[in-house]
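Friendly challenge for the regulars: who can give me the structure tokens for this chain first? No prize, just bragging rights.
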Amino acid sequence: MQRLAFRLQVVTPLFLSGADQQVAELRPPSIRGALRFWFRAMMGGVVGGDVQKVRQLEASTWGTTDAASQLRIRVCDQKLQTFDPTSMKDYEKQRKGLIYLSFPYLEYEKELKSQRWNRPYIKPKSSFTVTIRLPSDDALRAVVEGTVWLMAHFGGLGGRTRRGFGSVVVDQMQSDRLKPSFLLYQPDPHADLKDYFEENLKVIREAFATFAQQKLGSHFSAPASGTSPTSVMPQFPSFADWRTVLIEVLDSGWKEIMDLSGMKLRHFREDPSSTARMRWGGQRTFDYMNAVNHFFSGSLSSPARLDYDVFGLPIQYQSSSRGRAKVSLQWHYQNDDKLQDRRASPLIIRPLKFNGRGKWCIAFHLFRSEFLPKDAIECLVPATDWPSGVSKPSAVDVQVARFTKVNAFLDQIKKDYSGVELL
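First reply, four minutes later:
Bragging rights claimed.
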């Protein structure tokens, strides 16, 4: 057996709890789950999105319900500072973009006209060490190192990671036979970020391909490298079909960085011609003005068209002029009327803090895959607690979500901040 150790530092609040949801704590199963996700993502790119091959390779590495994992993960040397909402009060009022990204971890307090944090979290600048014990296999070791790199640069830990929370950086990596290329977890102050990402991704992709070749033998054939979309929509988020835009902004606190990211996303979804204002000051969204408002009045025909639903579900709407009546965007299978309201966003916002650069990098990642199952139907549904005296509309089917607007958002970010795109 061999041992790898990664020292991680928390960059943005990390929402992670165990059985007691009122206590923030680090748990090895959650870290394992995050690493498995990024293993699948890169391996999916290496095998061209082939689900069966990814499952086979994942099972041989991370285990299944019937077979133990080859990897033993522990968390140690924890230097954590936590926020406890039961004993501390912390409010947000001015940073509207941060409020937008933080749902549902903030709740409105009418008396103070402010949003109060309602969930415990591990504070930025906290640190901890993750140790991984694995068999003495160089190919497996390279894959594990690459998976940690991917989690730190593309993903995160805990809740709301796709909206910037739970961002961590590897500030120290200890191993017995560390390759020099993997010391580049924080680039030189004068290094080019685009080159930094692309060079490391190339090394990681090659490591995964070597591992897949070792496990699959003649059943493995590597697809062409690059980020060109596959001809078939991948069934899960992977590097078979992805896009990344990087921007650099001046050094400041995590709240300011998150606020900037949230405001850009919120403004992109807002209809500037709308005269209706949200409680926090923002304008109504395009989807609300073009479709949801007509749904409230009972004049929306089926199937309706919403353009921004692909940013993730659930989405809830409320009409103040109709007694605060609420509707939500949900989905169900064709042969099953049971409604489901959750679907992960294909857009991942990742704030990255690199020591010595004097700037933050914000990475906007798009992983294009099936947003809903092939036999799913999306629909606008009125809330069960509909206000009395207000006419209640019937559910209306919605056309399948498309990725056009997410790509348009990345184009806008790239233009506004002279961003660079990975190849």
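The longest strand covers residues 2-10. Residues 176-185 have pLDDT under 50 and may be disordered. Your move, everyone else.
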